[in-house]
Write a structure and sequence with these properties.
Structural class: alpha/beta
Distance between the termini: 34 Å
Largest sheet: 7 strands, mixed
CATH superfamily: Vaccinia Virus protein VP39
Strand order of the largest sheet: 3-2-1-4-5-7-6
Strand content: 15-25%
Order of helices and strands: HHHEHEHEEHEHEHHHE
Number of domains: 1
CATH architecture: 3-Layer(aba) Sandwich
CATH class: Alpha Beta
Number of helices: 10
Number of strands: 7
Shape: globular
Helix content: 25-40%
Radius of gyration: 18 Å
């Protein structure tokens, strides 16, 4: 990665707070069965560190499943929205922090999970941190919602948004693309499906919540939204909803026991 590419990536990584309203309104949640699988220990109440927690989409699912959650988020605006969304939940602790310097003691977490965030981490710093905070045999997990572009109109939506039509924004479709390092077992993967129901305004918000659209000029945003409306108009009336299909891609590995 060149210095310019690294700078651009760092800028996009920190961009989401500028679109907190759109992100919170339109980003999808995660099905409980996908989160259960990712944690690897669905029947237990776990101490889970969630890294890159955003506005709390995954956090809420973790809490609903009965886990104790330490939510870590690098953007103060996003973290404030998470706290407003979830209130003073007795099983939630929140911290401003990064994957590369987790504000969590050594060997105290049963699981570390990242929802829609693992691809932003600096692996050389973040993976040792995940290993550090986990107990022996604890689970490291990464999970993504990717739009199901096997449906032609969804693939066309990705083209309008400037994304690849092979795997959505993250491009995380094969297990070899996710690795947790030598301190972990081999990576396992699984896929789940769910559907998000969005009205026209929420579709706009979803488009405007992407890291690469946040920095667009207003004229570019308007052109993108017009193209989306043209694509989706046959399926919409003023307040109708559209069904947007997702594939939930899940990856997990266990921390190897300490010597």
């Amino acid at each position: 990665m060149t210095p310019t590419e690294r700078h651009n990536r760092a800028t996009r990584r920190q961009a989401f707070g500028a679109a907190v309203e759109e992100y919170d309104k339109a980003r999808p949640s995660y099905p409980g069965e996908a989160v259960d699988w990712s944690l690897g220990q669905p029947t237990d109440q776990l101490k889970v560190v969630e890294v890159g927690a955003g506005t709390g989409k995954l956090t809420r699912v973790l809490l609903d499943l009965g886990h104790d959650v330490i939510a870590v988020e690098p953007d103060g605006t996003m973290l404030e929205r998470l706290r407003n969304n979830l209130g003073h939940h007795p099983q939630l602790d929140t911290h401003l922090g990064t994957a590369e310097d987790l504000p969590v003691p050594d060997g105290t977490a049963d699981a570390v999970i990242a929802g829609q965030a693992f691809h932003w981490f600096e692996p050389g710093l973040a993976l040792p941190e995940m290993e550090r905070v986990l107990v022996d045999d604890g689970t490291a997990a990464a999970i993504w919602n990717t739009r199901d572009d096997s449906e032609r109109w969804v693939a066309e939506m990705g083209r309008i948004l400037g994304e690849s039509t092979s795997g959505g924004a993250t491009g995380r479709n094969v297990v070899d693309e996710v690795a947790f390092g030598s301190g972990f077992t081999a990576v396992e993967s699984a896929q789940f499906r769910h559907t998000q129901h969005l009205n026209r305004h929420a579709v706009h918000a979803l488009a405007l919540s992407r890291s690469y659209t946040i920095g667009m000029r207003e004229s570019e945003k308007e052109a993108m939204l017009t193209a989306l409306d043209d694509l989706l108009r046959p399926n919409f009336t003023t307040d109708d909803e559209i069904r947007l299909p997702y594939i939930v891609e899940c990856f997990r590995a266990l921390r190897l026991s300490r010597p």
